[in-house]
Amino acid sequence: MSRIQPRTLSTQELIRFCADFIADERGLPKEWQVELLRRIVVLAPDNEHPAQDPRQLDLFLKN
């Protein structure tokens, strides 16, 4: 598997190969981890958890 470069794989292929690494308990090589994280960052929304506006009232009472 060392000849396969993670950057050359589609996202689906990358996920499948990473799952195989984890399932076999061999551990995921660093370059594969970096590529997987790079893809997640690209796909993740920029403002998934926006900061709360200080003027906004809380929806739930805090005990």
Attribute tags:
63 residues; elongated; mainly alpha
Q: Helix and strand succession?
A: HH
Alpha plus pi helix count: 2
Biggest sheet overview: none
- Cα shape: elongated
Q: Helix coverage percent of residues?
A: 40-55%
Q: Kindly, what is the distance between the CA atoms of the first and last residues, rounded to a whole number of angstroms?
A: 54 Å
By secondary-structure content and strand pairing, the structural class works out as mainly alpha
What integer value in Å does the Rg equal?
Answer: 19 Å
If you average the pLDDT, what whole number results? 83
Give the quaternary arrangement of the chains.
single chain
Extract low-pLDDT stretches: none
Query: Tally of extended strands?
Result: 0
Work out the strand percent. under 5%
What would you note in describing this structure?
The protein has 63 residues and is mostly helical. It has helices spanning 11-23, 30-43. The longest helix has 14 residues, at 30-43. The mean pLDDT is 83.
